[in-house]
Fold:
Amino acid sequence: MKVLVIGGGGREHALAWKLAQSERVQTVYIAPGNGGTARDPALHNVALTDPLALADFAAAEKVALTVVGPEGPLAAGIVDLFRERGLRIFGPTKAAAQLESSKGYAKAFMQRHGIPTARHATFADAAAAHAHVDREGAPIVIKADGLAAGKGVVVATTLAEAHAAIDDMLGANALGVQHNAEGARVVIEEFMAGEEASFIVMCDGRHVVALATSQDHKRIGDGDTGPNTGGMGAYSPAPVVTPNVHAKAMHEIVLPTIAGMAKDGVPFTGFLYAGLMIDAQGQPRTVEFNCRLGDPEAEVILMRLKSDLFEVLLHATGGTLDQVELQWDRRTALGVVMAAQGYPGTPRKGDAIGGLPAASGELIVFHAATALADDRLVTSGGRVLCVTALGDSPRQAQQRALGAVQQIRFDGAQWRNDIGHRAIKH
Ligand code: AMP
Ligand code: GLY
Structure:
């Protein structure tokens, strides 16, 4: 069988790596892939990103199954396109992907179906947004209503920060938010206190299978300081998701979401990622939905997955996920992201990468923004590598990952030394 992974980051490298281990998979294509996947003899980079060209490729090569990594192609309707052509693909339709691509849609959906989340209001008019913030006070959360790679959110601790965020998102747009077609809008939310976790499930439209839990680290700096990023590291499992929290997340958030989407006539297929905020009483609320695997959550989750991912995806695209029981490695997987100089602002590109360790059963370096320049590996974007290790404890996994990080060299590399700190302290 041939499979196709769409995307070129660390998440897609991990998906391709895992699919290549299936006995039934003979060829793994990754489009466009990156420098690391180009060098991996088990994977084949395909230099395509256009959905129509990808569908032509999948048809011509008789690809048995396609899985989509990032939100961009999903929001553009790649799943609808493949299905119209009779091609098997795992992901949500364009309509279902609005759960992620429009925060306004997601909030209205949650309100309509009674799914716990922060109170919110949506504004296109700056004056009305400013007045709302003055009434509500700080802390308060300002979000752009569009895709922003995790960067279009400002958790304002003061009113001044909140007003500045509104001006930026509805005006100058220095954060580079990609607004929806209806134009610039902001969602203003109640601040929720608690600890976050990533709760990701697979859906076939009717049935749901939960993946292992994980926790991301969104801030650039140690101790969760500095600006938000796409994620600087993750680990799995996340102890904050106790069996009790897990049950609540399934019964109060995930299952009502899947049922609500079906009821709204937009059945959800694909990975559904609920970002949870868990308060001191163990009550989870939804921070956001993503309609895909997280990155770097995918790297740590897939490193622990023992089941054959290809078989699981066949069930997920055939409506038989109820027949699947996933098997997990009991150890902790922990991934440390190495980012380029300048990230999460404009990253510098083209720095030579050296000192990469050989992969082992306990350590893998997933590539994200890397490219080959005359056979040399160089940086090509913000999050460059995700150095992922297994360990008997979070501390051991962290030590293993950091041991490798310290051997890897590229100019301007930034990483966090405290990934997993909440589990290590526990
Ligand atoms: P989002 O892109 O919606 O996941 O937001 C990015 C990050 O901002 C989240 O991971 C949280 O850390 C934080 N955040 C978003 N919304 C809220 C909220 N209502 N209360 C507290 N923190 C939030
Ligand atoms: N790591 C967070 C995300 O993928 O959205």
